[in-house]
Write a structure and sequence with these properties.
The complex is a heterodimer. Chain A is an alpha+beta fold. Chain A is built from 5 helices and 5 strands; from the N terminus they run ββαβββαααα. Chain A has 2 domains: 76 residues, Beta-grasp domain (Ubiquitin-like (UB roll)), CATH 3.10.20; 70 residues, Orthogonal Bundle (DNA polymerase, domain 1). The longest helix of chain A has 17 residues. The radius of gyration of chain A is 16 Å and the shape is globular. The model of chain B has no long low-confidence stretch (mean pLDDT 96). Chain B is built from 18 helices and 24 strands. Chain B has 3 domains: 153 residues, Aldehyde Oxidoreductase, domain 4; 161 residues, 2-Layer Sandwich (Aldehyde Oxidoreductase, domain 4); 274 residues, Aldehyde Oxidoreductase, domain 4. The chains are: A alpha+beta, B alpha+beta. At the A-B interface, α1, α2, α3, α4 and α5 of A face α5 and α16 of B.
Chain lengths: 161, 710
């Protein structure tokens, strides 16, 4: 594979990278941009540990080639809350102590962010369905769902778009 | 407070007596606390911080839990068996009490008052005169390098301020915002490694064409030692491409030597075994048992969401390794043997991994990284297993089977109980045999063989046979263990070890006996349970769940049922009862779990609840969905599609009732609900349908077959 130059934004910052166009976005985020919150879990888009937002849509970055994000805007967990701030979803995870090992959490947060962007008042069933592409092995599901409900409420009260 | 007669030191402290090995005061006003136990996602670091802060009288936020390493940390063996609060917690409590005593002695000397007249608040010591000194000043005067002597006594229960409170964990903030795991470690000039594993356990490498792979982009090294094959590359995706290419260029000869996956219980019961009688009291009755039944569990994956990972770095003949091992010193020992170097030349740092739930591939990845990094001295190499590697090679939770027979007397009480267990021994951890217990070692051409597995002795709590003896009052008991000698699939300890099958069998059988005696299952258990703490746990679960109304309601609704499972971990530690309410339609769906737990003194109620919730949900996933599949040659469950686990839509809520016993010793709770959960589900399914599932997993197919069969 030869390197092409691809331009895209990550967490609001423009990047210009010369890499083979098939390079998975996951490794670029982790190893070139040093954004380690996006993690490898299966490499097949089945577990959700590598979930990021591309133009606001949640995708599994292990399955996304570099060429497909040309000109697009990627958000990782490091950029979720803006510079140096926690997003209400991150804060809600802390408030609900909705973690055991935490390896799946960044992917869960990105899926939840995509869900709340589409549906500001999701039901519990909608939240659960929205996370069905994310696996949690520690059994923290109920706490995570509670945290997302809390964040949805906080966002609605703050009048977020 | 001190006593004239020194108390016996907790075992971990007796083995690591220097106080400053546990506690140091840092110039930035924080307190560095070291434990030999490691964070596995169970929240242990925060629980230990809470104990230390309370005993020292400093704010919780000042405690810095230092990740363990083989150079500095206290040696506390393995982080397993739900022993960390018990072992490390009691050691830290005593060490901190002694540190506080030394600091107050120094303060009294400097302030010219009696130590009893000093007050401490958040590390500031105040004399009646109003003069103050802080711990960080005093630490320079006090002798914190001395050995613990057991003279200072920890605080009494009524003066604890932090223990028993639901303080937030220290590690979660980092885990929702970026790098947090060994997987995320970045060292200067770091390269990426991947291993090409054989396609099956005993495959022989018969051909290899390596040259085309050597020329691939970014490839820095190819490694072949025996049938251990690996690549090192500049970039991670280059390492993956090279690994895939090398796999295509490798020829293997395989053996069809695995059992039939559709008949695992039959395989277990007919395999070569050594039979041991674990317990025989009162003699076996001459008459036939009132009831008899066989139960089984399949092979299970640990199924960590983050596959095994390690970083290794050879420099000047010395090796550093970063690993999410549960046992960094035993790992170092086996690394030294496998690599043929001095143990002293290796430094192992613990760095967190994803939840492991027992002995998975963490230690193996450390040797993989060390072998690959040796080909590129001076450069650190990071190795992460692919998902297919994890499922193909992690040690499985062993399949097990049990046959239980019970004799009821005329009054419907249990007169006798007999159980036969079929299981290999479970523990295949590194650190105890002339052969390293590390995967890659067996693939080198150096003649290392996998060591035979061991169990903790039955008298000390057991491993495969843990909790095989019912906790109930039964006059005549006979327990026999058929220790399987041939182990066709690689296995080791999985969370709750033997208890998952043993409690499932006992608690399912208690249900069968209760129904046969015409007694309510909760009442039947209570009739055989004299211990008030154990009775209180069952009663608390039944009350919270609304047992009486659910059971009678269930009789009017064939689709719904309720069941209970009970047990005491090791028969001496944490006590737990689980109640499941299920709805059976196309599949079995758990609507709700209630779990009641008595683990003695609760260090952090929210931490305990979190572990119990997770333990129940994970066991529900095993019970309803999970079974490792294989053909006669290879493991065929290689992706999450081949090995489904409970999803967000399927995971039920767990209501936890804690019975705090502040005067009693604390017990760990990581492994105390698994078998109870399985039994509660199976008993609830029986309550709904009248169908008894005895072979796990309790899938739709199995249920349909049972319904059609009956």
């Amino acid at each position: 594979m030869t390197a092409d130059t691809v331009s895209f934004r990550v967490n609001g910052v423009q990047h210009l990278l010369a890499l083979p166009p098939e390079t998975p976005l996951l490794y670029i985020l982790r190893n070139d941009l040093k954004l380690k919150g996006t993690r490898f879990g299966c490499g097949l888009g089945q577990c959700g540990a590598c979930t990021v937002l591309v133009d606001g849509r949640s995708v599994q970055s292990c399955d996304v080639p570099l060429w497909s994000v040309a000109g697009k805007s990627v958000t990782t967990v490091e950029g979720l809350g803006g510079a140096g701030r926690l997003h209400p979803l991150q804060q809600a995870i802390l408030d609900e102590q909705a973690a055991q090992c935490g390896y799946c959490l960044n992917g869960v947060l990105m899926s939840a962010a995509a869900l709340l962007a589409e549906n500001r008042h999701p039901t519990e069933a909608q939240i659960r369905a929205g996370l069905d592409r994310n696996l949690c092995r520690c059994g923290t599901h109920a706490r995570i769902v509670r945290a997302i409900q809390r964040a949805a409420k906080a966002l609605a009260e703050a009048g977020a778009p | 407070m001190t006593a004239a007669v020194p108390a016996a030191l907790p075992a971990s402290l007796a083995a690591n007596r220097r106080l400053d090995r546990w506690v140091r005061f840092l110039p930035d006003g924080t307190v560095a606390v070291r434990s030999g136990k490691v964070e596995l996602g169970q929240g242990i670091a925060s629980a230990l911080a809470q104990i230390a802060a309370d005993e020292l009288d400093v704010a919780y936020s000042r405690i810095r839990m230092i990740p363990a390493d083989t150079a500095e940390s206290p040696d506390e063996g393995i982080t397993a068996g739900s022993m960390s609060v018990e072992q490390s917690g009691s050691a830290l409590r005593q060490a901190c009490a002694e540190v506080r005593y030394e600091l107050l002695e120094a303060a009294a000397d400097l302030l010219d008052v009696h130590p009893m007249d000093l007050d401490v608040e958040d590390g500031t010591v105040r004399a009646p005169t109003g003069k103050t000194l802080n711990y960080w000043q005093l630490a320079e005067k006090a002798d914190l390098g001395r050995a613990a002597d057991g003279r200072a006594r920890p605080k009494s229960v009524d003066s604890l301020r932090l223990v028993g409170r639901p303080l937030p964990r220290l590690d979660i903030a980092a885990k929702v915002s970026g790098a947090a795991f060994v997987h995320d470690l970045e060292l200067p000039g770091m390269l990426h490694g991947r291993v090409v594993r054989p396609p099956s356990y005993r495959a022989r490498l018969v051909s290899l064409v390596a040259e085309p792979v050597r020329a691939m982009p970014g490839v820095a090294a190819l490694v072949r030692e025996g049938r251990f094959l690996g690549v090192v590359a500049q970039r991670e995706e280059q390492a993956i491409h090279a690994m895939q290419a090398l796999a295509k260029h490798a020829g293997w000869e395989e053996q069809a030597d695995l059992p039939n996956v559709e008949a695992v219980p039959q395989f277990l019961r007919s395999a070569r075994a050594q039979t041991e009688t674990l317990c025989a009291t009162g003699g076996r009755p001459a008459d036939a048992p009132s009831l008899s039944a066989c139960y089984s569990r399949p092979y299970l994956f640990h199924g960590s969401i983050g596959p095994a990972c390690a970083v290794a770095w050879w420099r000047d003949g010395r090796l550093q390794v970063w690993s999410h091992s549960q046992s960094i010193r035993p790992l170092r020992r086996d690394l030294a043997i496998a690599l043929g170097v001095d143990e002293e030349s290796i430094l192992v740092h613990h760095a967190e991994g994803a939840g492991c739930y027992g002995h998975n591939g963490a230690d193996d990845a450390a040797l993989d990284a060390a072998l690959l990094a040796r080909a590129v001295p001076g450069s650190p190499v990071r190795v992460q297993w692919m998902r297919e590697d994890e499922f193909g090679w992690e040690p499985l939770g062993p399949a097990m089977a049990a046959k239980v027979e019970g004799w009821l007397d005329d009054s419907g009480k249990l007169a006798a109980w007999r159980c036969e267990l079929w299981s290999n021994r479970h523990i295949m951890r590194p650190g105890r045999d002339a052969n390293p217990n590390l995967l890659a070692a067996w693939h080198l051409d150096r003649g290392f063989e996998p060591p035979a597995p061991i169990d903790v002795p039955f008298e000390s709590g057991g491993t495969s046979h843990r909790n095989i003896v019912p906790k109930y009052d039964i006059p005549r008991l006979e327990i026999v263990h058929h220790v399987l000698q041939d182990i066709p699939l690689r296995t080791s300890t999985l969370r709750s070890i033997g208890c998952y099958l043993n409690h499932f069998a006992i608690e399912s059988f208690m249900d069968e006996l209760a129904l046969s005696a015409g007694v309510d299952p909760v009442e039947f258990r209570l009739r055989h349970l004299p211990d008030p703490r154990e009775r209180a746990v069952i009663e608390a679960a039944a009350k919270k769940a609304g047992w009486d109304t659910l059971r009678s309601a269930a009789r009017g609704n064939a689709a719904r049922g309720t069941g209970i499972g009970f047990g005491r971990y090791k028969n001496t530690a944490a006590i737990a009862a689980v109640i499941a309410e299920v709805e059976v339609a196309a599949t079995v769906r758990v609507l709700r779990f209630v779990a009641a737990v008595d683990c003695g003194r609760v260090v952090n109620p929210d931490g305990v609840a979190n572990q119990i919730e997770g333990g129940v949900v994970q066991a529900a996933s095993w019970t309803l969905k999970e079974q490792v599949r294989f053909d006669r040659t290879r493991i065929t469950s290689r992706t999450w599609e081949d090995y489904p686990i409970l999803s967000f839509s399927e995971a039920p809520a767990v209501e936890v009732v804690l019975i705090d016993r502040p005067e009693e010793p604390s017990f760990g709770v990581g492994e105390v609900v698994a078998g109870q959960t399985a039994a509660a589900i199976a008993n609830a399914v029986h309550d709904a349908l009248g169908v008894r599932v005895r072979d796990l997993p309790l899938t739709r197919e199995r249920l349909v077959a049972l319904i059609n069969g009956s």
